[in-house]
Description:
Layout: H1 3-9, E1 16-17, H2 23-34, E2 45-50, H3 53-68, H4 73-81, E3 88-94, H5 104-124, E4 128-132, H6 135-138, H7 140-145, E5 153-163
Antiparallel strand pairs: 1-5, 2-3, 3-5, 4-5
Amino acid sequence: MDALTLLLTRHSQPRLTAPAPADEALENIKQAALRAPDHACLKPWKFIVCTGKGLDKLGDILQDSAISSDKEQVSIDRALQLPHRAPMVIIAINQYKQHDKVPKEEQIAATACAVQSMQMAALVQGFAGIWRTGSYAQCPYVKQSLELNEDDEIVGFLYLGTSSMKALPKPVIDSDAYFTHWT
């Protein structure tokens, strides 16, 4: 698949099964993240790759978060299963680095670009994925459990695996509704 086709047909896939990327495919995904735009080459990110028992560990953290937040039992039970919606979850963390010319927002944007690059690298290699955030990405308990610093942010959870369904074609979007041209 050429780069333009990849970008114009990109889609998220919420129904994922095994196998997950491994070996060279996973290393390609990691390397794609590390090539994301990054002002001052700060590498303001950290990634936690969860598979197997790692998914259980993440589920335990989410469930404990739901319990500590006094959520309903159905939400507590669901929290334990959330990571198991895919055979791999990559937790994308922005580790803010103080810098006079690169504000926190720009560092978060760089980490977001890294997540996008990982998803594109997965797609081009025949895998599928979906980038999720939600309340757990903002939860102080989850951040503490992941040993994040006060200025660190969870940019998202990238679920990766093999698509269990064929992607439906997406309609062409009228670009004029979103772009203004100054000439």
